[in-house]
Each structure stands twice: as structure tokens, then as C-alpha cells.
Amino acid sequence: MLQSFLHPDLIEAGCDEAGRGCLAGPVYAAAVILPKDYQNEILNDSKQLSEKNRNELRHIIEKDALTFSVAFCTPKRIDKINILNASFEAMNKAVNNLKLKPEMLLIDGNRFKTTGDIPYECIIKGDGKFLSIAAASILAKTYRDEYMEKIALEFPDYAWSSNKGYPTKAHRNAIQLHGATKYHRQSFRLLPDPVQGKLF
């Protein structure tokens, strides 16, 4: 089972994002504060779980968490400030919307830029080490997937209900055939060169 905390005497919020490597859609982030003695044998990095398990765990996390928050940055915002900064911005938004102020942030990954005064620690592959980060990864992923399935109804040619905006062959073929949509990140390489210049 994953660890319940890093600092036993601090209120910790686990933070993670979803959708950084996608060609379309927002980047989502979540922050979660779990009870100190929390245990859950199934809870793990969202990438290690089936969609069914992720969706089941989402409801368990929302019920069991002391507080949680999910936030996002739009494709336009990603294009304006770049994907790394948009990921940080979404994470800061999620932290700021928590109903209980954490005393320490556990950030999945090796980089973070805070806009607040809460200390943080970056933990590489933290979503496979700490329950709170794993919980955040599941919320960010499930909320984003739900959104991508919704906009897939508006643009069915891009198979977003299955690829969720990631650069699959089917997704890139659809961009080549139909062009980019308002949900695509224009600053990303949507197609390999030299086709890229023909898109817009």
C-alpha cells in the first residue's frame, strides 16, 4: 500500500495533473487532503488502474477526503503561457480552492512554481508512492476524461472519447483530414513536419 504521509505533523495536500501531453483539451489538476490514518489498498497511480477502478475510486476519494479541489487551464491559456506554466497554474488554482489550508504540498514530478506561501516538496513518481498524490492523479484524470468525452460529441471525428486528446495515430489522421478545432492546442506540434504548416 502507498504511504499515508511524508510529514506526520503537517496537513499535507497531494497534487497532480492530467493531460500535459495531449494535443487537445485543457490540462487538469487536483489537490487532495486525506485523513492522516487513511488507508486504501486499491488506491494507486491513475495510470496503473483500469478506467472502471478509477471511476469507482473517484467517488470513494470525494467521500473520504477532508477536502479536495479540481481545476484546469484551457487550450488558449496553454498556448499563451505554455503547458508547463499552465500545469503549475491549474495546480495552484486547485490548492487555493481547498476548504482547508494545507501546511505542505506533495507535488508529483520534479518541478513546481508556487504562487502562494505553502511549502512544497516535489516527488518523482509520487503518484505511485503517496496516497494523497495518487488520489489527486485519479481526480485530475477522471474529471479530464469526462470533459473530453463531452466535447467528443461536438467533434466526433477525432475519437476523443477513446484517445482523450492524446497524440494517437487516429487523432493525428483526423487532424490531417479535418484540420484543428477550437479545442486543439495551437502551440503544439499537431502533425509532424512538413504537414504542420498546412493546418491553419
Topology:
Layout: E1 12-18, E2 27-33, H1 51-64, E3 67-73, H2 75-81, H3 83-96, E4 104-108, E5 120-123, H4 131-152, H5 160-163, H6 169-178
Parallel strand pairs: 1-4, 4-5
Antiparallel strand pairs: 1-2, 2-3
Helix pairs in contact: 1-4, 2-3
Keywords:
200 residues; 5 strands; alpha/beta; five-stranded mixed beta sheet; 6 helices; 15% strand; Nucleotidyltransferase, domain 5
Explain what this protein looks like in three dimensions.
There is one protein chain. By secondary structure, the chain is an alpha/beta fold. The chain folds into 2 domains: 12-152, Nucleotidyltransferase, domain 5 (2-Layer Sandwich); 156-198, no CATH class. Helix content is 36%, strand content 15%. It is built from 6 helices and 5 strands, in the order E-E-H-E-H-H-E-E-H-H-H. It has helices at residues 51-64, 75-81, 83-96, 131-152, 160-163, 169-178; strands at 12-18, 27-33, 67-73, 104-108, 120-123. A 5-stranded mixed beta sheet has the order 3-2-1-4-5, sandwiched between helices. The N and C termini lie far apart (49 Å). Mean pLDDT is 94; it is low at 196-200.
